[in-house]
């Protein structure tokens, strides 16, 4: 299947599906009226936001109800059958979109956590997803309308055409970000995910949904787990929809070489039959920022809390920090420090848009680990270095930092302080590789320098795919 192809068989054999659908009970007049009202309201709001013009331009909206015949309920998921129009590319995308409306309207949609971050943009030839646009504003105006990742993620239908369009949009956003990306508190800092999609869902359930919560992820979204495609798709989609509310850094596994060994490449071959999705994502990985700098207000006191309580204005904290010039900064990255890097400006001057090199400062940022021994040491990983407390203290002092937050290492409690609380390791993949038995954690940093670790256990286990494990276990 090429990148430009649109699948026409996503729920089994199409002819069998048609046969089943034609035996279904038609919609009642009342149900059809409710469906029409939801759809009309959606289109009207879409026109107001300027995102539905092409739907009307090609007459799709006016053809819908002439072809509407019946409603099928299958495991809580409804499908609208619209005659032979289903065989076209437009019909395919319409089914996914419109059936979600029916699901929510009649309260039968399975309760998943994530809003579909797309509104399809129709053309006369095919449904090309040019970008993923949230319909959240429309949804809340309608009161009950929420579109979920039901078909795109939870049924494994992350299509290549969607991946390509999503990554192109994400690339435009990421190329404008710095190698040391500034991030304002409050923010929730997260460690490795490693393809454990259901545990990522648990993370959002516990930490809060984006954009209600600001997030900073420190890399390693793929490999090891069974759902790397779904995991990285969700995070990139959130980045496209809420670019100021989520920051995604590069880890050592966001690499062409590493993903060919530890699972992501094989997963893409298994799910798509070719390496196109793998290539699209690994090309995007080159644009991920390498590090982030979290600014935390440490002043304001009672006056700060009073103003926030009295005026309920988010800018209060920012204004106070600006006036009092009291900021503490947390340096966030995947791995660790480098003997070639003394200041943050050294990092800012990198050309990061490349494959992770085998050695050098960029490699060190993604591969190095803190160590109990002082000074620099040779890393047993074969890449990067180990660095002692004297190194981290000097780096923090030189760059006016209070803390280095990093990921990259399994820690059984989900987080681990080191170097007399100058360095903290955060790991957000519980029961790593589905067998390590570790807790996971996230770090909440508020406006006033308060650090709160939230630990969590794995999400309830689903049936895992039939995968022959051939990936090596390095450094579990």
Protein described:
The chain crosses the membrane at residues 287-311. It is an enzyme of class 3 (hydrolase). It catalyses: O-phospho-L-threonyl-[protein] + H2O = L-threonyl-[protein] + phosphate. Belongs to the PPP phosphatase family. Keywords: Hydrolase, Manganese, Membrane, Metal-binding, Transmembrane, Transmembrane helix. There is one protein chain. With 476 residues, the chain is of the alpha/beta class. It has 2 domains: 14-157, no CATH class; 166-456, Metallo-dependent phosphatases (Purple Acid Phosphatase, chain A, domain 2). Helix content is 38%, strand content 15%. It has 18 helices and 16 strands. Strands 3-7-8-12-14-13 form a 6-stranded mixed sheet. Helix 9 links the parallel strand 4 and strand 5 (215-217). The chain is globular, with a radius of gyration of 24 Å. It starts with 13 loop residues before the first helix and ends in a 20-residue tail after the last strand.
Brief digest:
One of its GO terms (molecular function) is metal ion binding. 38% of the residues lie in helices and 15% in strands.
SSE diagram, text form:
Layout: H1 14-22, H2 29-49, H3 53-57, H4 60-67, E1 70-74, E2 77-81, H5 89-105, H6 136-142, H7 150-154, H8 160-174, E3 180-184, E4 187-190, H9 197-207, E5 215-217, H10 228-241, E6 246-248, H11 256-262, H12 264-272, H13 276-285, E7 291-297, H14 301-311, H15 315-324, E8 327-333, H16 344-348, H17 361-367, E9 369-370, E10 376-378, E11 385-387, H18 389-398, E12 403-406, E13 415-418, E14 423-426, E15 440-445, E16 451-456
Parallel strand pairs: 3-7, 4-5, 5-6, 8-12, 9-11, 12-14
Antiparallel strand pairs: 1-2, 4-15, 7-8, 10-11, 13-14, 15-16
